[in-house]
Amino acid sequence: MTARTASDRPASPGEPIARRAAALASELKATDLVVLDLRGVTDMTDFFVIASGTSDTHVRAVAEHVQAGLKAGGVSTTMTEGLTQGRWALLDYADCVVHVFHPTLRQYYQLERLWGDATRVPIDEPVTQGAR
Description:
Beta Polymerase, domain 2, alpha+beta, 4 helices, 6-stranded mixed beta sheet
């Protein structure tokens, strides 16, 4: 059996959200940005965006910037966690979940390793056809 490429997968409304979230996080100098395509791995969500901030304040600022930028584009979270603490902020958009970590917690939880079967999405790759 051959691995499916991103172009083989059906379009997901989470893909443009993930790409925009990654771009917004990058604007505020988030580090170690990773986008994971979880389609075919779990039914929980289609994409994870994982980023790190350099401090609690930076984690909060990055998460708030992502949330505000997506909201300005008409995309609202279904749930948020950890914004006030700044250690691990989670923004749930149903088809995409954004995680912004303090480096210590990111190393502890190792989501990239936990979801090692997911496909890493090159952030500069164009959006899959049909995704809106």
